[in-house]
Design a protein that fits this description.
This protein is an alpha+beta fold. Helix content is 35%, strand content 25%. It is built from 13 helices and 25 strands. The longest helix is centred in the N-terminal third of the chain and has 32 residues, at 138-169.
């Protein structure tokens, strides 16, 4: 039965109805008028059946007075069990109410103490439910409970706090691919069962005269509840989930530039094939399979490593940590399986494109423009996998771009990941400890790789050669593993490249190079979490030319007004409108050039989208004063809403938020209680 309960709890995790926070958020949204998906009601039944199965399991592990009928135990225990569960949920509610009030430390302290007090009452109610389960007589149970409570309350409360912390830490098991949710559900269930069984042991030692039954004695009822739970699970799986919002739109295409009419010259031979646009020449070798792009002067622009087209099974998980200051995440990535896609089984011409067929993979080479080469990799396998390209990297190459980055300009030696992540702040004191776990440049805490604006484009700038640009056209998460800085050879030697085994990127090995030179070649690896990979090579040869080619693909931004590029002033921390007025006055008096004044600390409840009436009672006048002095007011805000804000209810009722699998607003518990 324990295994069945863990599996049902895993299903509740999947449906976003597992933790007290999720249950409360879903119920509150329904009471406020949100329209859940049909499967929500099946999940509610599943949740109730799972709780009843857990109660039946624990009932068989609690002590009892000899001769008490099983049905009598259940009848008297369940009401007390429900009351204790509601009290525990209330304690959890006040804890959430505490942490989302950041930075109001006075409110945090008061509500945390209230949560602790309600938690103590919940522990006392659980002990009373134990006494009822032991005696099936309210009067006798109350006498037993009143006698044992002074001795048991403190140790029972300490045990509950310890289990609460451990169950919170069990959340990190979700990092494990495939089995992470089950691990979290199993750990949480086992800890709760252990706690309740421990309570029974403590009560049995204090009261005396109790025996431990071999089971609940309600096997038929247990089987019936289990069958009902499985039926509810099946209905939840089959019933419709969240529907697309009427205002929802698909992500716009990243490539907006129309391809030019290029008629390449294509030649197919026994050894491979070649195609040229006049400015770029592409050579394809059959064995070992490789692709080389050169310019009209014969300089190598980009080269796929030998058998460098690979198909992987990448086990990865990205989770937001639910009880920290802001949107910190944890990541797990393991390349469980990887193999080169070879040999070449066919090469043919398809219109103006060269199509290379490999084992269950097609590589299509074409020219978007005479100076832009497009490589499309398409896997025919239906199994979700990731696509990887291993390409050579000359020692004098520098890797620039990738969007907003905080670590350095040249990313050589880094593994860059491209997906949006909230910038974590506020943990500088923990960094000396946690950097050993999450890495020197990890995303947590305050990691330099953390970025809210990743761009799947990089410049490959060489000291002695043309600069090119790589753009991979995808919204999917991607990683680029770049080689460490390499030393320059002093003799004319064949170029060497790095062999890429399954989990390693830095092992040297020999290869037959297509060109020779004075530079040692290493490899870079681009991995996209998709069965398809769409890569554009902007051939430069200068950085400005490569950027122009890239923006011709993706579109060029509008030029912002001049004031955006002029000096600006902002303050962090507790700031009021008087501070903003003082800044404007001082800058005007000292004749310091200033274009706009930034206001960060303007929401008393972060994510409320409302100016604090205490800090900015006359915000309209502040804006008018700024404009009178020639300044602009800019504000900084979160792209999400705090559940403690007055505007949150309005957003729930009008369907403004992203929705979970139950069709209700998706909520993530962090220090701001976001919705």
């Amino acid at each position: 039965m324990l295994l069945l309960i863990c599996l049902l709890q895993t299903a509740l995790i999947y449906f976003h109805h597992f933790s007290p926070f999720e249950r409360e958020s879903n119920l509150r949204a329904v009471l406020w008028g949100a329209r859940p998906a049909p499967r929500y009601w099946a999940v509610v039944v599943l949740d109730l059946c799972t709780g009843l199965l857990l109660a039946l399991l624990v009932l068989g592990r609690w002590p009892q007075v000899p001769g008490v009928a099983p049905l009598a135990r259940l009848a008297w225990t369940m009401p007390a069990w429900v009351v204790a569960a509601l009290l525990a949920a209330t304690a959890h509610h006040w804890l959430n109410e505490a942490i989302i009030r950041f930075p109001r430390y006075d409110l945090i302290a008061k509500r945390a103490l209230l949560s602790l007090a309600v938690g103590a009452v919940a522990v006392a109610a659980t002990l009373f439910a134990l006494a009822l389960a032991a005696t099936a007589n309210p009067g006798t149970a109350f006498t037993m409970w009143a006698k044992a409570l002074p001795t048991l309350l403190v140790p029972a409360l300490l045990l509950a706090l310890a289990v609460f912390v451990l169950r919170a830490l069990a959340f990190f098991l979700r990092l494990l691919p495939l089995v992470g949710d089950f691990g979290h559900a199993a750990a949480s269930t086992l800890l709760l069962v252990w706690l309740l069984e421990r309570y029974g042991r403590l009560l049995g030692q204090t009261a005396g005269g109790l025996v431990w039954p071999a089971g609940s004695g309600l096997q038929v009822l247990t089987i019936g509840v289990g069958a009902l739970a499985l039926l509810a699970l099946g209905l939840a799986w089959r019933l419709p989930g969240a529907e697309k919002h009427a205002d929802a739109v698909e992500p716009p295409p990243l490539v907006v530039g129309e391809p030019e009419a290029v008629a390449p010259v294509i030649t197919i031979t026994e050894a491979g094939a070649s195609m040229t646009s006049g400015q770029v020449q592409v050579e394809v070798r059959r064995s070992p399979f490789t692709v080389v792009a050169k310019n009209s002067q014969g300089d190598v622009l980009w080269q796929l490593a030998e058998n460098g087209l690979r198909q992987d099974i990448l086990l990865q998980k990205i989770i937001a940590i639910p009880f920290l200051y802001t949107g910190n995440t944890m990541k797990f990535k393991w390349r469980a399986w990887s193999q080169p896609i070879s040999p070449v089984t066919g090469i043919e011409v398809d219109g103006d494109a060269l199509v290379v067929t490999l084992r269950n993979v097609t590589l299509r080479l074409s020219f978007h423009a005479p100076d832009i080469l497009r490589l499309q990799v398409c896997h025919s396998s239906l199994i979700p996998r990731s696509s990887s390209l291993v390409f050579l990297a000359p020692a004098d190459a520098h890797y620039l771009g990738f969007g907003q980055r905080f670590n350095k300009v040249d990313q050589r030696g880094e593994e860059i990941y491209c997906f949006v992540e909230e910038g974590g702040v506020g943990y500088a004191g923990l960094r000396p400890i946690l950097k050993h776990v999450f890495g020197e440049r990890g995303s947590f805490p305050n990691g330099e790789q953390c970025t809210g604006f990743p761009v799947p484009f990089c410049l490959i700038s060489r000291e002695h050669g043309p600069t090119t640009g790589l753009f991979w056209n995808t919204y999917q998460p991607s990683w680029v593993k770049l080689p460490p800085p390499a030393t320059r050879n002093t003799e004319h030697k064949p170029c060497s490249m790095l062999h890429v085994p399954r989990f390693t990127f830095h092992v040297s090995g020999r290869a037959r190079p297509p060109v020779s030179g004075r530079f040692t070649f290493h490899v870079s690896r681009l991995t996209v979490l998709d069965n398809h990979l769409d890569l554009y090579l902007c051939t430069g040869p200068t950085a400005l030319a490569a950027i122009r080619q890239y923006t011709a693909l993706t579109g060029r931004p509008n030029v912002p007004p001049p004031w955006v590029l002029l000096p600006w002033k902002t303050r962090t921390g507790p700031v009021t409108e008087d501070d903003v007025r003082e800044d404007m006055q001082k800058f005007r008096e000292l004749q310091i050039p200033l274009a706009h004044v930034g206001v960060e600390h303007w929401q008393e409840i972060r994510g409320s989208y409302e100016f604090s009436p205490r800090w900015y009672p006359h915000i309209d006048d502040v804006v008018a004063q700024a404009r009178a002095n020639g300044y602009r007011i800019t504000i900084w805000h979160f792209p999400y809403m705090n559940a403690g804000a007055a505007t949150h209810r309005q957003g729930v009722q009008r369907g403004y938020f992203l929705r979970n699998r139950l069709g209700l607003p998706y909520q993530q518990r962090i220090f701001h209680g976001i919705a």
